[in-house]
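Kindly go through the entry underneath: sequence plus fold tokens. Please state briefly how this chain folds according to its tokens.
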Amino acid sequence: QVQLVESGGGLVQPGGSLRLSCAASGSIFSRYAMGWYRQAPGKQRELVAGITRGSSTVYADTVKGRFTISRDNAKNTVYLQMNMLKPEDTAVYYCNGDMKSYGPGDYWGQGTQVTVSS
């Protein structure tokens, strides 16, 4: 069983930056691919970024060049650095554990709200 706890959300102006963190319990964190998903009101949850055990990354086209996913296996933590934020990035962001090549894994955090507004 893996528990995930996100932090770092908040209100930011367009063009600003935020860094989300996801702390995972358990000693097998390094074995999992991890990801960030988001869900805006009235929309389906969508993949934002993913990172494999070997730190290969994948990004949604809408965030490429603006967001960076990284992981620190010593701290059991995955990060999402978000730069040049836009109002359309407003959503609840969820950490996902044990991501698969075909979709999300079974482990979800509680979500953290990101609001981009002037």
Summary: The chain is about 0% helix and 45% strand. The CA atoms of residues 4 and 109 lie 5 Å apart.
